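wait is this the right file?? whatever heres the structure
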């Protein structure tokens, strides 16, 4: 197994986008600032999307500017990123000093239509333009690949289809692909099968991250299965917040504090202060006004 793991905190974006309670940009900035002081090195702080479709992400420009200024003042060595679905979103993204953007693609046609209103082929045509602008502006590009382990509309997804879309993402220019268990149906056996197919096809281990939802309580088991395959990057969300607004049945992400606890107990380094992270999760619970799904943050 890897001796250390890189955690990508997605709570401020993937977590909050599914909340009925819309936090003001000042509260979202406070959340990112708190997370920035826990030892996390990569945080997705927002999304440059339509406020009509995802009102929770409105004012991401303000969040980005505030947090970049904070990190510079505190001399924090970390990477902030944001979701950018198209050129319109990239225009707003480039008004900040963020240096990492993320794109979304799906493994199934139906989910692609539901999530970003276009086919898989059309989504990649959009991505080419975004990728070109990112390269021009020296912005790193990350790729989210959704419905990897199952689709709420089409069911099972074949490894061949996953491999094909993953290589298309790499061809566009992403430096890393996050494999999304969008509705939380994956099992450790399936995770290993998919990872083996990707690795056998030539996708390097260091270009793969796991993004496992805990809908059925299997997220940590899927992380361990991934570790067995040499994967050392994982997305998680403080407090276990998250899910997808366009995926029926999608519950929360794996809680970052639960992930850190497990890895700490396995002797795998994360560089994250678990106590500080739990305090952030408990603060966030008060702000959103309902219980969080984290196991550890609820432990006395």
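ok assuming it is, sequence goes like this
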């Amino acid at each position: 197994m890897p001796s250390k793991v890189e955690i990508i905190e997605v709570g401020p974006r993937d977590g909050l986008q599914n909340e009925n309670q819309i936090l003001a940009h000042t509260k979202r900035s406070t959340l990112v600032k708190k997370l920035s002081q826990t030892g996390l090195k990569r945080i997705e702080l927002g999304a440059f999307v339509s406020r009509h479709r995802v009102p929770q992400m409105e004012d991401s420009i303000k969040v980005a500017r505030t947090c970049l200024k904070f990190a510079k003042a505190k001399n924090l060595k970390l990477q902030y990123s944001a979701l950018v679905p198209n050129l319109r979103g990239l225009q707003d993204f480039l008004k900040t000093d963020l240096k990492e953007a993320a794109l979304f693609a799906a493994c199934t046609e139906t989910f692609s239509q539901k999530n970003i209103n276009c086919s898989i082929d059309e989504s990649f045509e959009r991505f080419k333009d975004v990728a070109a602008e990112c390269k021009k502006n020296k912005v790193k590009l990350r790729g989210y690949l959704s419905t990897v382990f199952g689709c709420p509309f089409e069911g099972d997804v074949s490894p061949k289809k996953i491999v094909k879309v993953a290589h298309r993402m790499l061809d566009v220019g992403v430096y890393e692909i996050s494999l999304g268990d969008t509705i939380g149906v994956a099992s450790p056996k399936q995770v290993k099968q998919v990872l083996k197919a990707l690795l056998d096809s030539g996708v390097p281990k260091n270009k793969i991250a796991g993004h496992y939802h805990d809908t059925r309580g299997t997220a940590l088991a899927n992380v361990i299965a991934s570790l067995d395959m040499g994967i050392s990057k994982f997305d998680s969300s403080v407090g276990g917040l998250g899910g997808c607004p366009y995926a029926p049945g999608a519950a929360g992400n794996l809680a970052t504090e639960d992930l850190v606890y497990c890895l700490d107990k396995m002797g795998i380094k994360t560089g994250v202060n678990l106590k500080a992270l739990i305090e952030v999760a408990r603060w966030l619970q008060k702000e959103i006004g309902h219980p969080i799904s984290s196991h550890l943050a609820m432990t006395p």
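The two ends are 31 Å apart (CA to CA). so i think its the right one actually
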